[in-house]
Amino acid sequence: MAKKKRDRIKDLLADQPRDGILVQGWVRTRRDSKGGFSFIEVNDGSCLKNIQIIADHKLDSLKDWDKLLTTGSCVSVHGNLVASEGKGQSVEVQAASIEVHGSADPEHYPLQKKFHSLEYLREISHLRPRTNTIGAVMRVRNRLAYSIHRFFNDRGFVYLHTPIITTSDCEGAGEMFQVTTLDMADPPKNDGRVDYNEDFFGKKTSLTVSGQLEAEIYAMALSLVYTFGPTFRAENSNTSRHLAEFWMIEPEMAFYDLDDNMELAQEFIQFLFKDVLEHCTGDLEFFNQRVDKHLLETLNQVVSHDFERLPYSEAIHLLEKTSEKFEYSVEWGCNLQAEHERHLAEKVFKKPVIIYNYPETIKPFYMKLNEDGETVRAMDVLLPRLGEIIGGSQREDDFDTLMKRIKQKELDPEEYNWYLDLRKYGSAPHSGFGLGFERLVQFTTGVENIRDAIPFPRTPKHAGF
Ligand code: ATP
Ligand code: MN
To answer: Same structural domain for residues 87 and 29?
Structure first.
C-alpha cells in the first residue's frame, strides 16, 4: 500500500472540512469526557497551535487508551477534518483510527506541566524542542536564516564557506579553542616547548573566531560575498549575550566605504525584521503575549525609522554629561560597555544607533585609519535592550599603512603575508561587518538569554545535553 501523505497541522487549521486526513505528531494534553471519548491536543511542530482530535474510546486501536494516549506520546491519526463546535478552533479531527508509536510514561515524562522555566528546560535540551517557546524560537530562527540567504542572493552576493579550522587569529576577536591531535598527557617537545611540527597540520591550529579575513580574499575577486557559519570563542564570559559557539553572518564588499557599510547594515536588519513580522505572525504574537509585551512594538519601531549615526567622540560626550550612573566610567579612548551601549540606544535615541570612527587604539589592525591618524573607520550597530549586534569596518587598503599598523600592534608581518598581498596586487577599497545570528534571534523573539536562541547552547562548563 502506498504511504499516505501526512497533513501538516498548520495547513489543516487553515483548511475546509474534508475526509481522509492524516495527522502525525506528539500529544500535548488530553481531556477525557464522560461520554466515552477524549479530546487530545496534538502538535507536529509546523506551527505553534495544536489540533484537537476527538478520540472515541471504542476505536479498535484504543483498547488501553488511558495508558497509551498520554502527554508526550507520539501518534498517527487517520480521520476526517470537521467543523468544530467548541471554542478556540474552527476545525478539529474526528479520529477513525489512532496508532500510538511511542507512549510516554506520565510518572517520568518531564514535560507534564503547562509551564516550565527556561532555565529548567536547558537541563533537558533533548526534550525542550517540544515546548511552545523553544519550538517557536526555532521556527523564527529558521525563517531568519532563510531570509538572510534571500537578502544577499537577491543583491548578487556569493555565499562563501570559510574554514572552521584556521591558523590565523582574527586579532582581538576573542580567545581561541585549540585543535590538536597531540597526546595532551605527553606532547612532543622541542627545547621544552610543545613541538607543533608533530601536530596534525604541522602547526598550531584553532577553531575560527571569524571568517572575515578569508572573506576579504574572495571579495577581492567576486566583489560581493557573505559567510554564514559557526564561530567559536573561548571567552569565559557567563553573560546573557555570549556563547562559546555561535553563528555569524559576515558580508564583505569591494568598493564599499564606511557609509555604504552602514547603509547595508541598516537595510539588512530592517529587511529581516519586516520579513519575520510578515511570515512568523503566530509565533511573534505568542512571544509578544508571553515573553515581552513590547516585542511587536519594538520590531515595528526598528523597521520604520532610520538608525541614528553617531561618531564615537559624540557618544563619549553624551555619556559623560548624562546624569545616569554607570558601573564603568567613560572617557575618550575607552571601550563602550554594554551599559553604555544600551543607554544610548534605549534612553537617548530610543532606536538603533550606529557608532562609528572609534579610537585606533581599541580596534584591530585591519580597520582603515582616518586622516586624523587617531580614529579608524569602525562601526558598531547597537540595538535597544541588547547592545551590540553588529561590528564592522572599512578595511585598510593601503599597503604601507597596513604594514605600519601590523608592526604597531606587535604582530608578525610574516604571518600576514597573504593579507598584505591583497594590498599589493589590485587593492580595492572594501568594507564588511559581522552580525551575531543568535543575538538576532534573541532580539527578534524577546527571549532574555541567548542560550534559548540556539538549539544546543555551548557555554563555559556546558557542552552536553
Ligand atoms: P561583544 O563586545 O558584545 O562581546 P565583540 O565586539 O567581541 O562583541 P565582534 O568581534 O565584533 O564581537 O563580533 C561580531 C558580532 O558577533 C557581535 O556584534 C555580536 O553580535 C556577535 N558575537 C560576538 N561574540 C559573541 C558571543 N560570544 N556569542 C554570541 N554572539 C557573539
Ligand atoms: Mn564588536
So the answer is: yes
Per-residue pLDDT reduced to its tens digit, 163-222: 999 987 555 556 899 999 999 999 999 999 999 999 999 999 999 999 999 999 999 999
Q: Does the pTM exceed 0.85?
A: yes
What's the CA-to-centroid distance between 388 and ligand 1, angstroms? 7
Q: Both 150 and 54 in a single domain?
A: no
> Contact, 131 vs 28, CB < 8 A?
no
CA distance 379 to 310: 9
Ligand 1 lined by 250 (C-beta under 6 Å): no
Report, in this order, helix, strand and coil percent for the chain, each rounded to 5.
35, 25, 40
With the most atoms of ligand 1 within 8 angstroms of its CB, the residue from 239, 439, 444 to mutate is: 439
Q: Indicate whether residue 439 lines ligand 1 (CB < 6 A).
A: yes
Q: Could you tell me if 303 and 426 lie in one domain?
A: yes
Beta bridge partners of residue 178, listed in sequence order: 206
DSSP label of 90 = S
Asked if residue 264 lies in contact with residue 253, where contact means CB atoms within 8 angstroms, the answer is: yes
Q: What is the average pLDDT score of the chain?
A: 95
- Phi (first) and psi of residue 182, to 5 degrees: -70, 155
Distance 392 CA to ligand 2 centre (A): 7
Closest Cα to atom 6, ligand 1: which residue?
391
Is 296 among the domain residues?
yes
